[in-house]
């Protein structure tokens, strides 16, 4: 990781402040990690389907928690306690967005994310939340479709936001037609991960491809004011995790 670390720091430039905010905390986990579902059965169930509302912070975080849990065995050979799981960057970044108020309604038209009783609300008016949708729901659906969770994708129901429903996709077939390239890249990552012959550099490459692809559609559809920031921040956090444990 030493080689990666040096070019990442150059690329990342002055974005270290964001990381400091994350890593200064003595708790290495994202906010409310323990309150988020750690298995599918922690979600509400209806007609045999797990109901996930990605517009609730802990529900969205739960998808990451389950992904981390279900992929732990593939990273066990790189370090103890799932420390080397490359997917940690995603929940840490999402947690930072929550902590810094970026998931709240920036228009002030609703209480979403702004009032104490609405604090778990993830606003569809938050650019960060919209972009992150493609880095949470899409990888999760691709993972389910790749057999990572051992259930059929038809057993997952992703709830739409209160408005702008057309901006998002909600199940494997829907997302496969909306963002085929991104679904394929994430599926490639999860399938490669399950190969006996997979290695850390390969995983990193597949993850990078998938991550970049996840940003393509939403940054063109919702504006790409900080696409490069999003890239760099991801890498900084990733590097931070690596450096922390090596
Ligand atoms: C949430 O808090 C706001 C402001 O205190 C209040 O007006 C609103 O009725 C509360 N909503 C619920 C569902 O309790
Ligand atoms: C997937 O989502 C689309 C759009 O929301 C819907 O029309 C379709 O019935 C869903 N398919 C399944 C299998 O749930
Ligand atoms: C992968 O490795 C496991 C354990 O070493 C072995 O049992 C299994 O047959 C291997 N699978 C393939 C496809 O080589």
UniProtKB/TrEMBL annotation:
InterPro entries: Leg1
Name of the protein in its database record: RIKEN cDNA 2310057J18 gene
GO (cellular component) term, any one: extracellular region
PANTHER family linked to this entry: LEG1, PROTEIN LEG1 HOMOLOG
Coiled coil (UniProt feature): none
Source domain of life: Eukaryota
Keywords: Glycoprotein, Secreted, Signal
